[in-house]
Design a protein that fits this description.
By secondary structure, the chain is an alpha+beta fold. The longest helix is centred in the middle third of the chain and has 27 residues, at 136-162. The protein has 4 helices and 12 strands. The radius of gyration is 24 Å and the shape is globular.
Amino acid sequence: MEPESQQRWEGKVSAKLKTATKEQAWPLVKDFFNLHKRFPSLATCHGVHGSNGEPGCIRFCAGSSIPSSSNGADTVSWSNERLVAVDDLDLTLKYQMVENNLGFRSYESTIRVLDDGEGCMLEWCFKVEPVVGLVLEELVGKYRVGLQAMAHKMEEEIESLAMLDYKCEEIMWQGEDGSRLWSNWGRFSYGVCDCQRLMFEIIAFITKRYIKKYFAGGCGWVGWTAAAAGGAMVRWGGVLRRSLEWESIELAM
C-alpha cells in the first residue's frame, strides 16, 4: 500500500546573471536534455523520450550531489524527469520527477528567467514531500549552490557565443574555368543550426573541383568523404554550438 501523502516542502532560490539578458539566457534554460552542461554537480543528462524542449519529453539525470536513498554508499543517484510546460513569453519551464532513487515523492519544479536591470535573474522553485534523511534547509542550500554555479556557467557560455555575433560580407571564390562559390553569411546567434553545414559545402566543392583535373568522373564520393572529415574537424573544434542564419549560398560547378 502506498503511504499517505504529506504536506510538501517548498523552496525557492535565485541567482543573478550580470552579463546576460533574459533573451540570451532563456534558450539555455529551455535546453532540457543538456542540463549537465550548465549544472556542474550533475554527471550526466540526456533525453530518453520526445523532442528536447517540447512538453512531454523526458530526460535522464544521474550523479547529482543529492545522495540516493539506497543503502549502498556507492549507488549513483538518478532521476527521470518529464517536461510539463514551457512558456516562451513568460520564460517559464515546469517539470516533474516521474522516477528516481533519491527518495523524492510528488516532486515538481519551476524555473523562471526574470528581467533584472542590465542582466537577468534565474529563479528556481520546487515542491516535494519530506525526504527521509534530509531537512528542508539542507535541500534548499544544495539548490542555491547549484543554481549559482549554473548561472556562472551560463554567463561563460553566452559570453563565448557573443564573440561570434557578427555580420560577414559576401565571400567569393572563383576558379580558373569560371567555377565559383559565393555566400552571404548570416550572423552567428543561439539557434539550432551550425556552421558545419557551410564547412561541409566548401570542402566538398573545392575537393571535387580540383580532383576533376586528374580523374574523369566518379569522384563525387571523394569530395563527400573529405567534407565529412572536415565536418568532424569542425565538431571537434567545438564550433557546433554556434549557429548560422543563412541568407544565400550558391554552388556552381
